[in-house]
Amino acid sequence: MVYILVLLTISCLLIIPGTECAGQCSKIKSLLNDNTIKTSSRNNDICILTENSCCNKAVENKLLEKTKSILKNRVFLVLNQFYAKIATDKQYKSTLLTKIITSSTLSQAKKVELNEKFSSYITGVNTLTSADLEEMRAASATGALSTSLGAAVSGTCQDLLYFDMESLKDIQLKYLGSILVMLRGYQLMTELITAATSQDLTEECYIGAVRGGLKFGGCNLCLDKTSFSHPCAKLCRNILSGCLKGHIQTREYIQHLALNQVKLNSLVEQFARASAVAVEDLKSEVKSKLQLDNEFRASCSSLQRGKEPTKKAVYDFALNYDEDDARETLDSDWLCKFVFSGVSEVNCWNKSQVGEYRLNIYEFTNEGQRQNPEVPGNGPNINIDDIISGYEDYKVKVEELDQGRIPLKPSSSSFLAPSLFLLTLSLAAYLTAT
Hints:
Blueprint: H1 2-14, H2 26-32, H3 57-75, H4 77-103, H5 108-122, H6 130-149, H7 155-160, H8 166-197, H9 203-212, H10 233-243, H11 248-292, H12 294-300, H13 323-328, H14 332-338, E1 348-349, E2 354-355, H15 366-370, H16 385-402, H17 416-433
Antiparallel strand pairs: 1-2
């Protein structure tokens, strides 16, 4: 009898397959790559267990470190996927902006200057002057017409077409404005996502994830009989909502921006098509004038010799994201189902055993998360006040475009120098008179 007990003890220590203790603590040993783990008396700081288990304080700390190395990337996985989607369209819109600049009749030096000013505009710093806007308005319209005719439109011809080109000039400026405002929106989205992902999750969040046994494993692995159980769905949602409580406002503004970017994209397409129609109408007018207007024909006969370009593929304005994609980025329900897959509604790990999770799902609001017991304390402090201020200005421009108005305005500083000059003259006149 003693021989059998000794043999059984040795087989358990060596984890010999076929013995009754061969699977003891196997899941947690595999996760932590530690074959020394064994069942011991209850001695826990993190896990809420009522019996002896494979987890003591040292093992819990290993689980916590494992969770810290994985959880943040998983929590922000959908947000980063969304960022990749907006980056794709951002590149498309940047290409359209470059095309407007390069196809204009501006000098090379002026193209470089305006490109730098447009880049500043996108980051929220407006250095454009009235002269810049008027010059771009005329040069982009002239460039579009020249491209369509396959011939340069001379200054004399521009003067003769002055009133005919007014409609195209306005449309080109709206088209340019819609692209710049949309790129501004992408800049704000990027700043929001950077602000969100640059902060670490809280210690309480990591502890909650270990207790909840989210996907990669936690306290559910401490007991062999529960090691294959999935976390309860409502528990998962409460843990992830608690982990993301510092991002409530971030999620709100990502959704606001996505909604407005979808609207802006339709406006960009609308103005692009309106520009194409206006160019064709103006080209027909030019051809008519070349036949019927002797003065115009004498000054602009070179336009008859132009070689019209072959038609190129139409730009695809379809977006690869929508408002739902933005909503799902920091949504605990979506994350639990599709990132932390394996959650269950019944017979699930409820933080201490397999059974039912009886608490409610706490709303993803400041008040709701104050009541959430799974991740106590405050979330990370994320200051997005400047981004919100930028959003308010951006939203005004979206509304202006939606109403058919041009959103591009000269910077207030561009009016400063003339005002100071006039003040100086007035002061000089006053001093002279007195």
